[in-house]
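Box 3.1 A note on notation
Throughout this textbook, protein chains are presented in two layers. The first layer is the amino acid sequence; the second is a token string describing backbone geometry. Keep the layers aligned when reading.
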Amino acid sequence: MGFARRVVLGLALLFATTAAAQEHPLAGRIWHVAGERFVTEDELIDLLRPARYVLLGESHDNADHHRAQAYVIERLARAGRKPIVAFEQMDASQQAALDRYVLASRAEGAPEAQRDAAGLGRAVAWSNTWPEWRLYQPIAEAALRNGLTMVAANVTDDLARRAMRDMGVLDAAFVARTKLSDPLPEAAHRLLERELVMMHCGTTGPVIQMMMTAQRVRDAAFADALTRRDEGDGGVLIAGTGHTRTDFGVPWVLGRMGPSASAASLAMVEVAGPFVRAQDYAQLYDSARLPFDYVWFTPAAGRSGGDPCR
């Protein structure tokens, strides 16, 4: 059995074992939103493969989500795809260091630590605003193993902060490419606003409006990175589920950029005790229907500290 095959089977078994431990009827199952049916992992890959851009949404601190993302990348590569892998968690200032690490990892006689991406987080000065690098390492390993280009897709925090107050600081060509100056549809605007209010413990007013601007700038940056860095076979985006929503996130931006930017959104969603039907989870997104193309239900991450809004 080849190394890649062992990796794929190992990831699948690990994910299945974790899901079984959760003892929730949805954990480990994959929901086809438009078809209103469950699909197998093989069917999911067949559904994702034709999309030029595959957007993999996550809860940042859930290790199962990152293992599943790595699994999808591995399976797409084995199916013959060679997409770039774009990360929300790295910004443009880290791209040079990322490129140097990848180049060194492909050099003859490269140390094992470089081949398996263990040192990549340190090499790019992985920010402590994100969960520790080891959670994301399987994704980078899948990319390195299959010779896929990795892209730091985010804007810097400094640029995002300045754009919150004045969109004029952004590159005009970037704004034009991504149609960033076009307003969101009214319904999508309200959904994004409500999501950010909820995420920020009920904060309202001008602060939320600035956060909405920052969210839209980042969504545009991710879409721009995917399309501009595309090496001929599309891309995979690693980002929070809010960015992969089809109603106002990166899929919406890609749709505005043109028909060649076809996208499929797969969200990793943690199971919640009271909700035992896939359709029930739409209410968590303040929507009549889950705002993704596919949903992979996973166990919830073990978290401590209680309610963050208290």
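Residues 206-228 form the longest helix (23 residues). The chain has twelve helices and eight strands.
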